[in-house]
Write a structure and sequence with these properties.
Radius of gyration: 18 Å
Number of domains: 1
Number of strands: 9
Strand content: 15-25%
Largest sheet: 7 strands, parallel
Structural class: alpha/beta
Strand order of the largest sheet: 3-4-2-5-6-1-7
Number of helices: 7
Oligomer: single chain
CATH class: Alpha Beta
Distance between the termini: 30 Å
């Protein structure tokens, strides 16, 4: 599937931002589009690292913003990753999206976020914003959960699970939920819980070879 195949389904500014770098979609991206990405369907995307998951999220968020549906929130587990995504999104979409990074004070509703339409934050920060009843939360139309497999993490897992539950209750049918992961042990159960279409693909840009290192050399598996 080529970018031109969806030209009539996405706003022109988004098409223009993607065109210099993207002419053809990767397998996971094509599957996501076929599973309803551009029709605001919930998705659980399970594909290898560097297979193009972030672009799937970008298509959903920026399309929603440009169509004036509401704000988009991108949830990450680490502050370093939040900073990385902030720089990437600002570079590509900063001309027409107001992008904010919110990873600091956990004891504030951050009212200044009202004027931003794409907000990148950690799960802990968003949990704090919900508990402080940030008034702009009702305007959120798209939520992306990166590294959603951390729901199985003893430390972060409970916060993330409760966060997703609260967001779905707060935003009801209005929200499109996009969850991303390179590895999930129970994708069918998780997609059912999230009421999401499941996207699974094994394509990766560089072939992965498995082997055992004995201290001197690596013995690779034979195919």
């Amino acid at each position: 599937m080529k970018l031109d195949d969806i030209k009539d389904k996405i706003p022109q500014p988004l098409y223009n931002s993607l065109l210099p770098d993207i002419e053809e979609f990767r397998p996971s991206q094509e599957k996501a589009i076929e599973k309803g990405l551009l029709d605001r369907k919930n998705l659980l995307v399970c594909t290898p690292t560097a297979s193009g998951k972030t672009l799937i999220a970008e298509l959903a968020m920026v399309k929603s913003i440009l169509e004036n549906r509401g704000k988009a929130i991108y949830i990450v587990p680490l502050k370093a990753l939040a900073n990385e995504k902030f720089k990437d999104f600002k570079k590509r979409y900063g001309d027409y999206c107001n992008i904010a990074l919110s990873i600091g004070d956990l004891d504030s509703a951050d009212p200044y976020l009202e004027k931003y339409n794409l907000i990148i934050c950690t799960a802990e920060k968003l949990d704090s914003l919900i508990r402080h009843h940030a008034p702009w939360l009702g305007n959120v139309a798209t939520v992306v959960v990166d590294e959603v497999h951390l729901m199985n993490d003893p430390g972060r897992g409970p916060t993330l699970e409760i966060l997703i539950t609260m967001l779905r209750e707060l935003l009801k049918e209005k929200v499109q939920l996009i969850s991303l992961s390179a590895t999930i042990g129970n994708p069918d159960e998780l997609s059912e819980w999230m009421d999401a279409n499941l996207v699974i693909d094994n394509w990766r840009p560089v072939e992965l070879h498995k082997g055992v290192y004995d201290g001197k050399k690596i013995e690779f598996e034979k195919k």
